[in-house]
Amino acid sequence: MAFDLRPTVRQRITRLTSYVVFVAIVVVLALIANWPSLATNFADLKVAKTLWPDILLTAGNTIWYTVICFVLGLVLAVLFALMKMSKGPFGWFATAYIELFRGLPALLTIIFMAFAFPIAFPGLKLPGGALSGGLVALVIVTSAYTAEIIRAGVEAVPKGQTEAARSLGMGNLRTTFTVILPQAFRIVIPPLTNEFVTLLKDTSLLYMAGMTIMQRELTTFAKAKMSENFNSTPLIAVALMYLIITIPLTYLVGRLEKSMAAKK
Amino acid sequence: MSEKTLHPRDTPVPGAPPVQLIDLHKHFGQLHVLKGINLTVEKGEVVCVIGPSGSGKSTLLRSVNLLEHPTGGQVLIEGIDIQDPDINLDRIRARIGMVFQSFNLFPHMNVLRNVTVAQQTVLKRSPQEAHDVAMAMLDRVGLTDKITAHPSQLSGGQQQRVAIARSLSMNPDIMLFDEPTSALDPELVGDVLTVMRQLAADGMTMLVVTHEMAFARDVADRVIFMDDGQIVEEGPPSQVIAAPKEERTQVFLQRVLDPTHVRELGETEPDDDALARKSSH
Ligand SMILES: Nc1ncnc2c1ncn2[C@@H]1O[C@H](COP(=O)(O)OP(=O)(O)OP(=O)(O)O)[C@@H](O)[C@H]1O
Ligand SMILES: [Mg+2]
């Protein structure tokens, strides 16, 4: 080694250097940025005031869409996870479903369900128009990801649990629902919360489906308000709303993961 | 949960032994683990299975309730061929208690729920009846003060006694034990063996895989020595343990009864005291 420095000293120097570089970049960007233009375009308080209180309604819609899709997706996911773990045609079907919808961009699935599906099956009318097609798409997409999460959880439950339950005379389904799934859910709470956060952000893709004023979620609302005002302030406001919801959840996942690791 | 229609072959044959294994074979792929086991356990009999690691003791035990499916031969439980696809295997399993080396209590349920859940879901007992039976069984293993605890809050010995209570609550005709004390700290082994001794004294039919030679010597009606997937020697403990005929048995016992294993012979006296204490109330 050319430098014979104690690791703590070297660490301190590395950290100091990265701070200096970081501050330098920020300063340079601050100097070359067009502040007056930024302020009028992204932080116009007059525009911000017009967003209130509709922004709360739309944040409510975002949360509401996320919760419905998550819950329905979870139910489907349990079904597909159990199917995938079984042998035979059900297993193949579940595998195909999961791989298909994890392999496609969520936006594509939303467009398909919102527009192509009603054209293909004019008899099957969903209430709520194109938006419900989009929501169905989100349920499908999230169920594919969640199914894999649930399957990993089920496989993490020790084999002895199944053996104990079966030796007591519990049937296959009884064992799954009373003994295995409750333990599997506990194991996968952190990745499930992550999936919830991802889904919440993916509800922004619903803007492609189009919606009425009362149906708008945050991103659609922001886009509408931007063109109404010829100003980008709504974007910043909506970004803050997303962060207010997602950051605590992400923090919670970190805490859960830490406490679960400690228990092991 | 699937309820198959009652089949004549589903009802116990009067007078048939609780467990009868006929020319039982088990292969894991190429590995031939059980090589023609013939074994009958009579009602009220305590049979201990001993033998070196990998000799197939667990596989034998697990074949009795079909946790392991034999690749040849027959398993008769009270005369019922339980490999018959037309019988309701779950109903047979409910009558065969099984105690595992690693306890396998349900960690998400408290002690009481562990002991009531199968009574209610499998035997369809009312919550009140299941509760009463559970309390009686937990009393038998000396753990009525722990009913609200979760398994993770119990010592290994306590967990194993709850597991025994859980099996007993199903009113089994037979109890299977797979090295129930092997995972326990030495000072906790005695409590579990005490419960098992009491169970044997009460007339339970028991098939026990164990390394506890003192238990086998004192409690077993018959000891079976297994090696390499076969029954090498069987008979009363006074013969198989005290005066083995086969050389393989002698070599095995010499190793197990080595002075470094004296603990296994030293637990008899204090246990009997503990037994007296427990059965006095
Ligand atoms: N599921 C399995 N798949 C493949 N091989 C297995 C399986 N279960 C057991 N075996 C093998 O079968 C043989 C007998 O195993 P078994 O567990 O019955 O032995 P054991 O006598 O109970 O040993 P121990 O005293 O260590 O518990 C071993 O060689 C083991 O590796
Ligand atoms: Mg074993």
Provide tags for this entry:
heterodimer; A: 264 residues; mainly alpha; 12 helices; 80% helix; flat; B: 281 residues; alpha/beta; six-stranded mixed beta sheet; four-stranded antiparallel beta sheet; 11 helices; 10 strands; 37% helix; disordered C terminus; binds adenosine-5'-triphosphate; binds magnesium ion
Structure description:
With 264 residues, chain A is mostly helical. In chain A, 80% of the residues lie in helices and 0% in strands. Chain A has twelve helices and no strands. Chain A is flat. Chain A starts with 6 loop residues before the first helix and ends with a helix. The model of chain A has no long low-confidence stretch (mean pLDDT 90). Chain B has 281 residues and is α/β, with parallel strands linked by helices. In chain B, 37% of the residues lie in helices and 21% in strands. Chain B contains eleven helices and ten strands. Chain B has helices at residues 57-64, 89-94, 111-121, 127-140, 156-168, 186-201, 213-219, 237-240, 247-256, 263-266, 268-279; strands at 19-28, 31-41, 46-50, 72-77, 80-81, 96-99, 174-178, 205-209, 222-227, 230-235. Chain B has a six-stranded mixed beta sheet with strand order 6-7-8-3-9-10, with helices on both faces. In chain B, strands 2-1-4-5 form a four-stranded antiparallel beta sheet, with helices on one face. In chain B, a hairpin with a 2-residue loop joins β4 (72-77) and β5. The longest helix of chain B has 16 residues, at 186-201. Mean pLDDT of chain B is 90; it is low at 262-281. The A-B interface holds A 158, 160-161, 163-174, 178-179, 182-183, 186 and B 1-2, 65, 67, 90-98, 100, 102, 104-108, 117-118, 121-123, 163, 166-167, 170. Magnesium ion is lined by residues 57-58, 178-179 of chain B.
